[in-house]
Each structure stands twice: as C-alpha cells, then as structure tokens.
Hints:
By secondary structure, this protein is an alpha/beta fold. About 30% of the residues lie in helices and about 20% in strands.
Amino acid sequence: MSKYRERAAKLVAQMTLEEKVSQTLYNAPAIERLGIPAYNWWNEALHGVARAGTATVFPQAIGVAAAFDEELAGRMAEVIATEARAKYNVQKKEGDRDIYKGLTFWSPNVNIFRDPRWGRGQETYGEDPYLSGRLGVRFVEGLQEEKDGFMKAAACAKHFAVHSGPEKLRHEFDARVSRQDLYETYLPAFKACVQEAGVEAVMGAYNRTNGEPCCGSKTLLLDILRKEWGFEGHVVSDCWAINDFHAHHRITKTPLESASMAMNNGCDVNCGCMFPNLRDAVRGGYVEEARLDEAVTNLMECRMKLGMFEEEGTVPFDGIGYDQVDTPEHKSLNLEIARKSLVLLKNEDHLLPLDPGKLKTIGVIGPNADSRKALVGNYEGTASRYITVLEGIQDYVGDQVRVYYSEGCTLYQDRTSNLAQANDRISEVKAVCSVSDVVVVVLGLDATIEGEEGDAGNEFASGDKLDLKFPGLQPEILRTAYESGKPVILVSMTGSAMALNWEDSHIPAIIQAWYPGAAGGRAVAELIFGAYSPEGKLPVTFYRTTEELPEFTDYAMKNRTYRYMEQEALYPFGFGLSFTTFEVNKVEMDSDKISADGEIKIRTNIKNTGVIAGGEAVQVYVEALREGTPNPQLKGLQKVYLQPGEEKQVEITLKSQAFALYNEEAEFIVEKGEYAVYVGTQQPDARSSALTGQKPACLKATAEERIRL
C-alpha cells in the first residue's frame, strides 16, 4: 500500500456516509472539519489547458497525431501540465475552485477513429491502435510528470470503450463488437495508457458495449480494467452518462438502480447528478459501504498525489507562477507542432513552394481563410493571439506581394448575408482570381459543425458528417478558382478525412491542415512559401466515398481503416509528401526468428538525398503471411531529422507482441509461420507506392512454433 493509499484510507474512515457520498460527485463540496477543500474534478486539456482562459492552444489532437512523433506529444503535454499548475496555483490563491480550475484533466481521447463521419474523431490520434497507444502513453507521461513523489497533473484516458459515434445515438446506442475486434482494435491504446504510463483515471463512454452501459460495465471496468490490467487509479463517468442507464438505455428502472450499478461495477466519481442516490443505496443494501469507501479512497489518493492536502510551499510545483502561462517558449513549440502536423497530399510539378519574389499578387479565398474557429477545433482554450491562414500569408509576404481576399461563402449556408441572394460572393471570387497570379483556397469544416453532440451546432447530424464532401457552396468556390486558369493551392482545414476525388484530379497542390492551433496560419503560410519542408503523415485513411464504408453503426472492423480495408484508398494512412527526398537503405534484422521472450532489432540507414533539411517518419509494418489476417499493421515508428546529404542509422525493436494477433476467443497468439516486416517511410500498399514512387524494404521473420502471449 502506498503512503498516499494508507493516508487516504485513514481520511475516509473519518467521514460520515453523507460526506463520503458527497465526495463521489464531480463538484465535490468541502468537508471543513476534516480540512478537505471543495474540488471540481472536471477539467479539459486535449490540446492545451481548455475552457479556463488564456493558455497555449496547440493543434487539435488529430493534427498532433499527423506529426507521427511520440516525443513531440510528450513535450506538448509537459507544457500543458506546467500551464495547468500555473493557473491552478493562482486560482487556488484566490479561492477559485470552479469547474475547469482543477488538476484532473479528462484527456487524452484514445478512442479509435474507425469511421470518418464521426465528429469527435478530431479529438483522437487517428485510426491505428499502435499509433494511438504510443501518443497516448507519451501524453500521459508528460502530463503526469512526477517530482519528489508528487504528480504535476492527472490524465484520464477516455472514453472506455468501443466508442466512436454516431453522436446522435450515443445515449442509447449498443456497440456490438466481437472479442477479437475488442482486443485487437478498441482496447490496445487504453491498455498502453494503463500499463505503460500509469494513467491516473479512465472515463467510461456513454454507449453500451455488448449490452452493458460502459460506465457500469462489469466486463470493462472490473474484469478487464481492474483485474486483467491491474488498474489502480479512479474511474469517472462521462457527463450525465449514468442517467442514461434508466432514461435511454433502459437497463435500470430508477436513478437509485443506475447509481448502484455504476458504483458496484467500479465507477468512482460521477460527472452528473446520480450519485447522491448512493446514500439510500448503501442504507438499503444495494451498495456495500466498503465499496463506497474504496471509491472515495481512490479519489482522495489522487488528490494527495497532486499535493492538495499539503502545507503551502511544500509541493515542488507550488512555485510555478503565472508567468509560465503562454510563454515565448511555449508559443515556439506550438508553431513547431503546427508545422509538423501539416500533410502535403499533392504537389504536381512542384508547384510548392511558391517563390514570393516571382509573384506580384496572390488571392486567398474561402470560409476558413480568416477563421479563428478553424484553427482550434473543439475542447480549446483561449489564445493570446491567433494567426489565420490569411494573416499568415499577409505577414509572410509583407508589402512585397499584394494579397487579395474573399470569404467566398460560409461553411454550409448558401449566402453570407441573410438579405442577399444565394451565392452572394461568387462575383468577388471571380474578381480575386482574375487579379491574382496564384490562388490559395481555404475550405473545410470547424467545430461548430463537426464535433460533439450538443456542442457542435450541426443541424444535419448532431456533430457527425453525413458524407465526406465539403458542405454548402465550398465545392463551387473551388471549381470557380480552378476554372479561372490560375494555379490553385487547396488548404483543407478539417478534423477528419474528406473525399477529395475531384480535388485530386484537378487541383495541383493540396495541404491537409487539420485544426492547426493558434499559430496554424503562420505554419501554413511558411509551408506554402518553403520556409520548411512538410513532414506530416496521415493518421487516418482518406477514402474515396462513404459508399465503400460499412454502416456507421456497424462496429465490426471488417473493411474499416487501413488495417482491414479491401479497396484502394485515395490517400492512405501513413502517407505524406515532402519538399525533399529520402532514401532508406541497408535494412537488416539482427534475427529472423520470433520467440516468446525475444525481440528483433531492425536497423536501417535513412539519408536526405534532397537539397533542403527535413523530417521523415521511419515506419515499420508487420503482416502475418496466411489467410484471414489483417493487412500490414504499423508496429514501429521513429522520427528522424536530416540536413541535405546527411545520413543516420535508425534502430527499431519489435517484441514478440508485434507479431501476435488476437483470435476469436481474444487469445493473443503468434501463430507458427512466416511474417513480412516492411521498413520504409509509408505503408507497403500499392496506392502509397503509386503516390510516392517508393516501396518499403521487405524482410521475413519466422515463428517456428505457436506462441501464446
């Protein structure tokens, strides 16, 4: 038992039943006689301290994932934790214990982005369990930095589990999933956060999984999370999810039954209003008081780890002042991440980078060109300065190049003014194109129409997308620019994959910018003008159409994501272009035998064969060479930065788990036989090779016997 556990248990033993129940609420009141201050558990830090005033606003999580860089995610989380402590310290001094003022952050979101229509997919690290797990682990480690036995901030892996829309149905939906898909796809990132990073909290999802409400699921919260994985932190419900047990799922009949079900199955703190019923539940014998004691002990232990019961000035993080919020260093990291998140999808005839010295005029058109909302995505903080794409281009060229601008249209309405006729900016779009040497069209979505049910005001699909097309008049605006005959660069600012079929066929340069953070417009402008080489890779597949996808409500992984898809992608997972070129050579493994406790070290050289400096992600994929197995899956990753002509050796280690697959009984097994190991800078699929002109090296490894892990 840790020192905090023992101390927490002693504190809980002094509480009355009513006091213990009060501490299981997200807005827990003070217990003055025991020296326990009030505490609100609800805080957010998906890509910066959110909803609590000024903070560094980093790129949305999906953009962070596109950097394909574990270390970068960790550095971002360290900054978030520092700013969180700085804000907490001044707020505590002022007696401000409101929502969004604590140190328990309900991030990261490590759900799998299995369907591009899901509005909250922008909050995730993409569609791949391995990548999501690696980034989730580093985010948690960065946020939960420890010093002298105290934790700087507490992370929470959410939403556990099998949760990825539809938003409209989430309060009543039952996600049916096989044990194989559950363990192979939906659980690995959570498991990594629990077992590798020691994540302090896990949040249950709104939906049911295989009939059980996730926030009261014996299977998920007790059998898997506590017993199988050994989780020792606390579990929090999603907000008002326990109310759904009786109101929408109809698994229980009363609030008392719902509260009892959640508490008995391992939920410790209720974001919502159901847990006051626990007083009567304990008195009536529906919940044992020992279980309530356990829950409150879990919560007090967390607060003690964060130093909330220590004398002022004795916790090493007490000295972090408000001057550590939004510092120049933090802003510099923000710009670095924004740059590394951008993915160059197409660059026909090397249109990019543009040379401002050869331009007199440039046109910037589109509803997201001067949009702050398109910079930040959802669950965002407030930046001290925002740089939109228009502003970034204006700042970059200064007085050297004249910049013309037209909003063009709104995101999805048919006019920019209610009193105007439909398509009221089309003549201005044509005028801008006519006087411009080159045209940058900035289209996409933002969190007002793509996001969480209730937050996104999407009148069409409760925050989800109905299809993968740019909504409203945006396609017409782009076609008009194309028909002008001027070179066109498309910047797509979305939190998810779009079907860019026409765009791929007609537009010479395409940049996927995601929601790139407060400095995102500067990063986009610098890419366009070649201040650095793009290095982002797609953390999700860009499909050609929704018609090739299974039903949105189908949680089976068959024909979903790059790991199981049967058709060819438009732009594959792991793909992204650069302004320089890289050569992977001298690929070798130190062994070609897979053993239970052994590991295989892969060494390869990578050389920058171009003329500018750049970053590249060395990617390792593994495929079991037998029928009925997934496509090659990402199992190793390392980011490398090279000057022109520079060459480095990279070493990536594959443990036996990299070769194992779950069977229908959820047994994790390396089957006897041959495995392909692909080493390169992309997936080993035909489409990636067609887009890049490159192929990964292919090596073979063999398991001489069946290995059960």
